[in-house]
Design a protein that fits this description.
Elements lengths: L1 H27 L17 E2 L1 H6 L2 H9 L11 H5 L4 H26 L6 H11 L2 H16 L1 H10 L3 H6 L2 H26 L6 E2 L1
Parallel strand pairs: 1-2
């Protein structure tokens, strides 16, 4: 009888451990849900050539983004992004990254649930050739994964302040981002000028 109980307990522990490992694996693994491009339904707004020729940097980026930034919620992103060319996807998802990190650092990016966009962001960065930003984001993500339990605890308390107080390792990553994100936008602009048809119809 004792042997039977021991076997049942042992089997139960293995089963729980496997479930926990599977859960952790799913939480750590990201999938890119935004790769599809329906060329027959490309969202390609009209755009004045004079604006395209004279705007630069973040001003050009916003001008190209604004007419395609029509999702009402994050849940709409998957369907909307099917209408985006690779260049538009890069602009759209990199803008998510920038809006979050420049407002509240990488901690805010993760706190607000934007990690699911990392595969699409990395695809965009590869497209424009910003390898240094890819490396920075990889470091930030490893930092997040090492501290995700702390994020979960603070989320239960609905208080992110201790994350900024205790996870000072993000400070250096934030500083590097602030110093290099203009380069990222310059690369995006260069790509857009080389491939305007991916973004707009010039008139």
């Amino acid at each position: 009888m004792r042997q039977l109980l021991t076997f049942i307990l042992f089997t139960s522990l293995i089963s729980c451990d496997q479930t926990k490992n599977k859960s952790n694996k799913n939480e750590n693994t990201l999938t890119n849900e935004f790769t599809v491009f329906d060329t027959s339904n490309h969202l390609q707004p009209d755009f004045e050539k004079s604006k395209f020729d004279t705007l630069h940097g973040w001003d050009l980026g916003w001008a190209l983004l604004e007419p395609i930034n029509i999702a009402k919620t994050q849940d709409d992103d998957k369907e909307l992004s099917k209408r985006f060319s690779p260049g538009q996807k890069a602009l759209y998802f990199i803008w998510y990254l920038d809006a979050e990190v420049t407002n509240g650092g990488f901690i805010q990016f993760y706190w607000n649930g934007y990690r699911k966009y990392l595969p699409a962001i990395n695809d965009g960065l590869k497209l424009i050739g910003d390898n240094s930003m890819i490396n920075l984001i990889d470091k930030a993500d490893k930092e997040y994964l090492a501290n995700k339990d702390k994020f979960a605890i603070q989320r239960q308390k609905d208080d992110w302040t201790p994350l900024y107080e205790n996870l000072t390792s993000f400070d250096k990553l934030d500083s590097i981002y602030y110093a290099t994100h203009d380069k990222m936008m310059n690369l995006l602009e260069k790509y857009a000028r080389q491939n305007p048809e991916e973004f707009i119809k010039l008139k």
